[in-house]
Amino acid sequence: MTTSPRPAGRDVGFDMLRTLACVMVLLLHASSQHWYVVAPNDPQWVAMHVWNTATRSAVSIFFMLSGALFLNAPPPGKKLWTRNIPRLLVTYIVWSLLYGIDNMTLPGFFENPLGVIDQAMVGRFHLWFLPAMIGVYLLLPALYAIVHYENGWALRPYLWVFGIFGILCGTVAAFDGLLPWAVSVGFAKIVPELCGCCGYFILGYALTKIDPARLRRWPLIVTFFAAAAVAAAAGVLHSQRIGVATALLHGDFTVTTFAEAVSLFLLFRTVKTPADSRTARVFARLSACTLGIYLLHPFVLEVMLKFGFGTMLCSAWVSVPLVAAVVGLICLAVTAVLRRIPVVGKWVV
Question: Considering only CA atoms, which of 283, 265, 264 is closest in space to residue 273?
């Protein structure tokens, strides 16, 4: 979803996975429309919750894909500072301003144009991804040094640190209020800075070192659905017990989200579609549009909801993927057009 270097032979599996992760984001946010409004014992909420937990690994996958591409490429050079980071920064500023104007409405913007700066700082919930990725890019030379030091000598210790202090501690911290205060808060406080999004970034690189011939698809598929089922069941049981919708295992750094992300990443490592096939070309084009779709989709969701097209139309088992599909197609069409505009296509979507 971000500007990444490409290996000599395009990895079709990566394009497919990026496209799937984008679809997962659409499902995630469609399922969240009425998530806090509907009672947890309502079958409609249970369906929303299942869709929500099954798609929580989407953003983690985006970081893993970027890490797999950047850290397998030559050492970062001038392009990182003149193209990759500036592009994300410009994208973040432009979309923050656009959503700031949307927050004010056009009449409000014309009455107080400078007010858009305050509103831009509020932005939209999904734009956090861009500064987070910029932060990772700023650390890219250091991350590159970690994974390539002495032919990868430091990679395994780092992954252990990420697994223990990033994922395990993140899972324990998710049970804040259910465990003794000293345990949950204590674990949350000892997470090293490099165990955040950088952890998934490096993990993506590490997983590319696994020989795809050794991977078996069914165990990976079972792992994904088992992790999603555990997260869904835990959230449903806890929410129904206290009578309030809660996101118990929804965090990016819980064991269940981690298992979902790793199993999907490895599953798409087994893709054998030829890079020169029609399927590969289709997914390459879809993959190129994922950033634009990600940036635009909350606006389209909100507009459609104002016209009564939301996830309460019918059973959430049907309405969530239906809304996600319609929003995705609209955003894809708009993004495809915007990408043809030279400056916009290069710097904004």
Answer: 283
pTM score, whole prediction: 0.90
DSSP secondary structure string for all residues of 185-233: HHHHHT--GGGSHHHHHHHHHHHTTS-GGG--HHHHHHHHHHHHHHHHH
Token pair belonging to 21: 């992760």
DSSP tag of 162:
I
Q: Mark out the alpha helices in 8-128 (DSSP H runs).
A: 12-31, 43-54, 58-70, 78-79, 85-104, 106-111, 115-122
Tokens 């790793």 appear where?
262
Does residue 179 sit in helix, strand or coil? strand
How many beta carbons lie within 10 A of that of residue 47, not counting itself? Answer: 19
Share of the chain above pLDDT 90, in %: 66
Query: Which residue would you say has higher pLDDT here, 249 or 69?
Result: 69
155: Cα separation from own chain's centroid: 23
Q: Is residue 262 part of a domain?
A: yes
Specify if 281 maps to a domain: yes
Strand partners, 179: 176
Residue 329 belongs to a domain: yes
The residues near 271 (Cβ < 8 Å, ≥ 6 apart) are 12, 13, 16
Nearest alpha-carbon partner for 239 in 72, 107, 41? 41
Report how far Cα 262 is from the mean position of its chain's Cα atoms. 13
Distances from the Cα of 303 to the Cα of 61, 95, 120, 298, 306, angstroms? 28, 17, 19, 9, 5
- Neighbouring CB atoms inside 10 A of 237's CB total 11
Q: How many domains does the chain have?
A: 1
Q: Give residue 322's pLDDT.
A: 97
Query: CB count, 10 Å around CB of 181?
Result: 9
Cα of 346 vs its chain's centroid, Å: 22
| Gap between the Cα atoms of 86 and 257, Å rounded | 30
Query: pLDDT tens digits, residue range 176-229?
Result: 666 554 444 455 555 556 778 999 999 999 999 999 999 999 999 999 999 999
Residue 53 belongs to domain spanning: 12-347
Beta carbons of 190 and 165 less than 8 angstroms apart: yes
